[in-house]
Design brief:
Pfam families: MFS_1_like
Organism: Skeletonema marinoi
Number of helices: 15
Shape: globular
Distance between the termini: 78 Å
Order of helices and strands: HHHHHHHHHHHHHHH
GO cellular component, one term: membrane
CATH class: Mainly Alpha
Protein name: MFS transporter
Number of strands: 0
Structural class: mainly alpha
Largest sheet: none
Helix content: over 70%
Radius of gyration: 26 Å
Strand content: under 5%
Subcellular location: Membrane
Number of domains: 1
Amino acid sequence: MCCPVAAKQTGRADTADMLTKRAAHQANNASETTMETTKQSSLHKIRLLYFFFRFSTGSLIPFMPLFMSSCGFTHEEIGRLQAIRPIVTMVSAPFWGALSDRTGKKKLILISTFLISAICRLSCAFFKDDMQQFAVALCLTSVFYAAVTCLLDSIVVSSLNSKERLNFGKLRLWGELGNGISSTLMMNVCSNEAYGFEHLFVVHGITAAVAVVFMILCTPSNQYNQNQAKQMTKANGSCNNDIIDWRRSLLDVFTNAEIASILGAVAVTGCSISVLENFSYINIKSLYKAHGQENVLGQEISMYRVFHTCGGMLTWYYSGTWQKKLGPNGVIIASLCCVPLIFFLYAGVGDGLDVRTKIGFAMAEATRSAIFAAMWSSATIRVNMICPPHMTAVLQAIMDASYRGVGSTVGAYVGGFLCKKIGIANTFTLIGKGFVSLLCGALFLSSQVKSNAPK
């Protein structure tokens, strides 16, 4: 028979054990809640960072071709000047990526390069009468700006887990929102006779300073990035970042067929969008001027920018859903197939400047931003998944160089040459037809390869 005292002590022990387990469970719940709250707070900061960063760049960069045109530069000269940034990016971006990966000081490099690039870009306003000095200012701007976008995306994507990476587009859409708001407002400013392009440089300088503040507040510390780099290196089989065979790593990257295909698709998209970015607004401006509607140009281009923003934001938001259904590579292929549509819409689908033409311009703006968002989101996520863990910033920089270096350089030169020879609208139509022919040829070759494949 059990002793009553012993039974009572056993009951007290069981009760104490239950209370201990309950307290531990509550502590775990509280810890998880705190971690989730901290994570959400961090994501909110990233959203604000993208918003102010793109607000700053959107206040001036989209209007540089118009500013060059107002300075008296020809279409061919504008093409050459706009080719400076992609050429320099192609050379500089991999250097910045390698430097940040090897040192782990991504935050310091991000902030310093963005600040210096903004100062150099502001200096362009003082050299509008001298093309050579203007070109030097653009060159210096491009050297430092080459590090910014790739580093920012690399820092953000690396801080997310595998599930959260599919929501990268939802973070990036805040940048599209900031870009849309600033470019819409600034279009009204630069088209207003009381202001002009000079005020765009003032706004860009102020908002760039705000963006720097948010970079300081919202990005992980240099110590965090260094620890993260060490953890990635250790997980990759090496405990010392200095003994990594970087040449071998680069060779492995460039001999990877999937990575090479993604970089090629990004370069082709960059080439196409470069032609449109440099000459679409100039074409629209000349069309409005020819039909005596130059007085409403600023207002209507602002409306087109609203469509541009909406198209990009919707695509960034649903990019994760589309990648789940089609896969990142499927989204990239679908984006390439939509490229010719933009050229035909920008070339003009109506007679003169009627409603159909204006609707076409609006659709072209929305489609252009949607294609970039779909392509960049899918390529960024997929490349980050398959690249060596110690080379995330390098490969992101190489992808940026493919888009803004190889692609944009070819687009600026070819676009400037063709626009001078046959006109902007005819150039858009010609490139659109050529793109359709290339896609049909690629589809035919793909079907032939599949039909000849052994069963």
